[in-house]
Design brief:
This protein is mostly beta strands. The protein contains three helices and 14 strands. The N and C termini lie far apart (48 Å).
Length: 223
């Protein structure tokens, strides 16, 4: 069996077994998992000055600005051609934050690397940066991930959303302005229960709902 076929099969199993609630969101999430490796939007992630590409074998290669380790190759050297992200396998989606990068794993977890000044890597601290991938603490059953300026959000298989990082503009959606360096476990984005897709801006986030409506939170300085 090809690597990508195994990843898709495993992802579908995770979503089917772990989703606690049957809802309208579930079949759409399953369909997304089945086609994730054919979706160019989740196989390419760009940040402020770097780009990363996900390969069908679950590895990732990045190039561009690397002062904060956002290329994930263990160095701080800029690269004009792609370099492999150290120790990363089993990825099914990629997202570029401003000066960091995150990869969604086939088992529903995520790994991130680059700057962590606001806790956007989700490791429970605000350490300066990580030159290689680190696991997002406590995140499980994720089916999509999106990076912003200094915050990250993950779509969970049950249609809820978890976010972490800076929260000055309410971009974590938990009803506070408290910055969090871990996913907001048990305090997910308020009122979101049937999301099927997510996208982060610099200081705001939006979720596409199974009903076709869109819900957004965070900065609204420009409407």
């Amino acid at each position: 069996m090809k690597r990508w076929q195994f990843i898709i099969s495993f992802t579908i199993t995770v979503i089917t077994v772990c989703s606690p609630v049957a809802s309208l969101a579930t079949p759409r999430l399953r369909n997304r998992a089945e086609t994730v490796l054919n979706d160019a939007s989740v196989r390419l992630g760009a940040g402020a000055g770097h780009t990363c590409r996900l390969s069908e074998d679950g590895t990732v290669r990045c190039w561009g600005f690397n002062f904060f380790g956002q290329l994930g190759d263990g160095t701080q050297s800029d690269q004009q051609t792609p370099v492999s992200v150290t120790g990363l396998t089993g990825a099914v989606a990629i997202t570029g934050g401003d000066l960091y990068t995150c990869a969604l794993q086939a088992d529903g977890t995520a790994r991130c690397w680059g700057t962590n000044s606001e806790g956007q890597l989700g490791v429970g601290s605000q350490s300066p940066f990580s030159l290689t991938p680190v696991s997002v603490s406590g995140l499980t059953n994720a089916v999509a991930i999106s990076g912003g300026l200094h915050h990250t959000c993950a779509l969970i298989a049950d249609g809820t959303v978890e976010c972490w990082g800076t929260n000055e503009e309410g971009q974590l959606g938990d009803g506070t302005f408290t910055t969090r360096s871990l996913p907001v476990i048990q305090k997910r984005v308020t009122g979101i229960t049937n999301a099927v897709a997510i996208s982060n801006g610099r200081t705001h986030s939006c979720a596409l709902l199974a009903t076709g409506r869109i819900s957004c939170w965070g900065s609204n300085a420009f409407g």
